[in-house]
Amino acid sequence: MSVQLIYDPAYLTHNTGNHPENARRLEAILRVLGTDEALSRKIGRLKPKPAANEDITRCHREELIRGIENMAKQGVEYIDVDTRISPESFEVARLAAGAAIAAVDTVMKEEGGRAFGLIRPPGHHATISKSMGFCLFNNAAIGARYAQVKYGIERVLIIDWDVHHGNGTQEIFWTDPTVFYFSTHQYPYYPGTGAASERGGGKGEGFTLNVPLSARTPARDHRKAFTDALREIESKFHPDLIIISAGFDSKRGDPLGGLMLEDSDFSEMTKEVLRIAEKHAAGRVVGLLEGGYNLDLLGGSVKSHISALL
Predict the structure, then answer these.
(1) Global pTM?
(2) What structural domains and CATH numbers belong to the chain?
(3) Per the residue annotation, which of 125, 165, 185, 222 is the catalytic one?
(4) What is the pLDDT of residues 133-154, one digit of tens each?
(5) Most buried among 25, 43, 164, 204, using CB within 10 Å?
């Protein structure tokens, strides 16, 4: 089975200067993937289209969309103290969300499949009404809602292994029992959410699972917590589609994180996700790039993930 790599060079034009989330991240990943000819032959390549407003407003308020568009046009450089933008950022963010949609279209083909969105800006901190934490639109959430509307998917599992908790994704699906949000993350840490007691609300209670981890948690313990949680989820929630918020800042040595995973751990975690996907979701898995800020390490981590998807 091949993996479709969803990418557009336009992602490099979201100009954030010397900010940790910068275009050099994608360039580093592309360099590593390009040095492995055998892997490159197995990867398909697809350019996305920008997400339409109707795709974005399933997860975000129209005021958020208009606000980002206006700030980009006006040359505003910071949405908040963490989140840098440039005049191109609104269109690039639409294209990042569009990659999530293209990835869903790819894996929903009759034979099933896997796709990876090599995208920026990332998405999992973007809430219903606020862009924050380097994120403008919530790509994973937009992809999940699109899958439900376009293909009638009943149950989506979003797995988030970024070092930071995906507060935006959690908020969007807080009361929704059709989208299960599962996160392992460093805690306490930015953005301050993600305690084990946060389990969803209303009809969505029990459909959010947070596994907070202390800084420097050994990789073996991290992996066991991840696998145990996935098996707990599988006992009560059988997904028709799995989306991974694939943040590689949970790797040992990332400048913005304190967790200890290695590339082999990302590979094994991916295989555990595939086990559930093959059993319940016709093998359908979408990976979307979130964090990962060590330019010497990031490409290898993404390569491990994509190789496991194959």
Answers:
(1) 0.98
(2) 3-309 (3.40.800.20)
(3) 125
(4) 999 999 999 999 999 999 999 9
(5) 164
